[in-house]
Amino acid sequence: MRFVQNVHTVEDIKKEIENHVNGRKFTGKMFEDIQISRLPCFIFSMLRNEYEIIDENISIQASEYHYSVPRANAPEYTSVEIGFPPFKFREAFIKQYADDPENPLDTVYGFVPIQELAEELHWYLNRPEPATEKGTV
């Protein structure tokens, strides 16, 4: 999934997240055989300096092994787990969902409603000032 800043709506992002997690199945064996770095990541692009496209990866997962709703292998999810985001979410989002709010880039965010995640990603992609360094807004 690739998004470019100022192009997609919250609803577009929500649909892409749902397409990313819905219908996927994880088994204990799969996790034993696959390296975490190879788990599917949600990829989006952002513009910096009005011409440079920067790709960002964020781990968005849902299964019986993740902090998702339902917490099972299911055809559809309403909430997902986010792992170690490449940028800092807004403070209210961090306080509500981060396992470790003191380290917002080095933690897991559990049971995040897909709608709220879409809104947060939309905010990030469309914020007035671009990030100058990874992890800053």
Describe this structure in words.
- This protein has helices at residues 10-21, 28-33, 91-97, 114-126; strands spanning 42-48, 52-61, 79-83, 108-113.
- It is 28% helix and 20% strand.
- A hairpin with a 3-residue loop joins strand 1 and strand 2.
- The chain is built from four helices and four strands, in the order ααβββαβα.
- The chain has 137 residues and is α+β, with helices and mostly antiparallel strands.
- It starts with 9 loop residues before the first helix and ends in an 11-residue tail after the last helix.
- The model is unreliable at 1-6 and 29-38 (pLDDT under 50).
C-alpha end-to-end distance: 22 Å
Low-confidence stretches: 1-6, 29-38
Give the biggest beta sheet.
4 strands, antiparallel
Total separate domains: 1
Number of strands: 4
Shape summary: globular
Mean pLDDT: 78
The quaternary structure here is single chain
What would you call the structural class?
A: alpha+beta
Number of helices: 4
Level of helix content? 25-40%
Query: What is the CA-atom radius of gyration, in angstroms?
Result: 15 Å
Describe the secondary-structure layout.
Blueprint: H1 10-21, H2 28-33, E1 42-48, E2 52-61, E3 79-83, H3 91-97, E4 108-113, H4 114-126
Antiparallel strand pairs: 1-2, 2-3, 3-4
Helix pairs in contact: 1-4
In short:
By secondary structure, the protein is an alpha+beta fold. Helices cover 28% and strands 20% of the residues.
